[in-house]
C-alpha cells in the first residue's frame, strides 16, 4: 500500500494553520511585553517613611539631609 502525498488542499490548510499559530504566538508575546513594561500608576505609589528601607533624604521628605544647624 502506497501512502499518497498531500494534495493541494491539505498543503494549503497546513500553511494557513501555521500562519495562524505564528500570528497567535506573536500576539501573545507582544501583549506580554507590553504588560511587562507598563509603568506603575503614580497615583497609588507613596514615598517610604523615614524609618523604612528605600527612604532617601535627597528625594523624599523635606529634602534636608542631616541635622539642621543651630541658630
Overview of this protein structure:
With 71 residues, this protein is mainly α. The chain has one helix and no strands. The longest helix has 29 residues, at 8-36. The chain is rod-shaped, with a radius of gyration of 30 Å. The protein starts with 7 loop residues before the first helix and ends in a 35-residue tail after the last helix.
Short description:
It contains one helix and no strands.
List the SSEs and their pairings.
Elements: H1 8-36
User: What is the strand tally?
Assistant: 0
The 3D shape can be described as: rod-shaped
Please work out how many helical segments DSSP would assign: 1
Can you summarize the main beta sheet? none
Q: Rounded to an integer, what's the Rg over CA atoms?
A: 30 Å
Give the integer mean of the pLDDT values. Answer: 78
Q: Classify the beta-strand content into a percent band.
A: under 5%
SSE pattern:
H
Class from secondary-structure proportions: mainly alpha
Helix content: 40-55%
Residue stretches low in confidence (pLDDT < 50, at least 5 long) are: none
**What distance lies between the first and last C-alpha atoms, to the nearest angstrom?**
105 Å
Record keyword descriptors for this entry.
mainly alpha, 1 helix, single chain, rod-shaped
Amino acid at each position: 500500500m502506497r501512502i499518497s502525498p498531500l494534495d493541494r488542499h491539505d498543503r494549503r490548510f497546513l500553511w494557513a494553520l501555521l500562519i495562524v499559530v505564528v500570528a497567535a504566538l506573536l500576539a501573545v508575546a507582544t501583549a506580554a511585553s507590553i504588560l511587562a513594561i507598563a509603568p506603575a500608576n503614580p497615583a497609588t505609589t507613596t514615598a517610604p517613611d523615614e524609618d523604612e528601607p528605600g527612604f532617601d533624604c535627597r528625594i523624599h521628605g523635606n529634602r534636608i539631609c542631616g541635622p539642621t544647624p543651630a541658630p
